Amino acid sequence: MKRLYRTAIRIEEKIAGYFLVAIVILVFISSITRFFDRPIIWSVEIAQLLFAWLIFLGADIVYRYKGHIGIDLIVEKFPEDKQIIVRIINNIIISFFLCILIFYGFQLSYENIGRTFQSFRISYSVCTISVPIGATSMLVTSAVEIYKSFLELKSMTVRR
């Protein structure tokens, strides 16, 4: 199971990296062609599609590496076991929010099935499905963090 999770993490990180490079290239090409009065409209739309996916993939990557902004001025003064409990509660609240994102994200994707991008005939659902898929990925990360926190808390009580 750990191997599958690590493989999924590597794939997610590679995809996010490729999407970022593709976005930069597409926007650069679009700006150059616009300069010569030959705009390529589809490049901006593909960049927007990739950007939507990159946002949620990147959010999960940053969440996994604890890179999101946090204010821990008060919490860091707590004893270590209380800090872990606060971390668990925080991840449970985040998980609840992610479940809401998943539910409404699938609704949004379903509602956008008939809507297509202007310059190419791909359903806008391909873009909006990034919300529930990214939130699901973050929910898995949150569950892993809760599990690790419980193990850490358990090992602290065993040491005492």
TrEMBL record:
The keyword Electron transport does not apply. It comes from the Bacteria. It is found in: Cell inner membrane. One of its GO terms (biological process) is C4-dicarboxylate transport. It is a multi-pass membrane protein. Pfam families: DctQ (PF04290). InterPro entries: DctQ (IPR055348), TRAP_DctQ (IPR007387). PANTHER family: 2,3-DIKETO-L-GULONATE TRAP TRANSPORTER SMALL PERMEASE PROTEIN YIAM. Belongs to the TRAP transporter small permease family. This is Tripartite ATP-independent periplasmic transporters DctQ component domain-containing protein. It comes from Marispirochaeta aestuarii.
